[in-house]
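Standup notes, protein team

Yesterday: finished cleaning the Micromonospora sediminimaris set.
Today: DUF1330 domain-containing protein structure.
Blockers: none.

Input for DUF1330 domain-containing protein:
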Amino acid sequence: MAVDPTGRDLKEFLATDPEAPVVMLNLLRFADGGRESYERYAAALRETFLPRHGGEVLYAGDGGPALVAEEGQAWDAVLLVRYPSRTAFSRMVADPEYQQVTRWRTAALQQAVLQPTTPWGRS
């Protein structure tokens, strides 16, 4: 399973209103022992990369048992991260220093969903 966006994914992502704010829904399923590696990544994200690129964590929490979902759709953790624009997110992902720490995220995860969201009422 993929846990990191590809170049093609980012190109499609930027094709839709690149300067509009975006909130990223992150659904995370940790590999065995992966939570510690993810926490290391998350600390770097909060302390360095989100401030550098104008992002902020709106919510971070542990997932509970799914109330309405197909088998296997429960997640270990959920995050909502706001970026001032899709371009800002893409710049962060391309940041050479960020690319050095993203290995902790990749190693930590068994599965992930990274879903950009757009507020209702915005076309």
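Follow-up from PR in the comments: The two ends are 32 Å apart (CA to CA).
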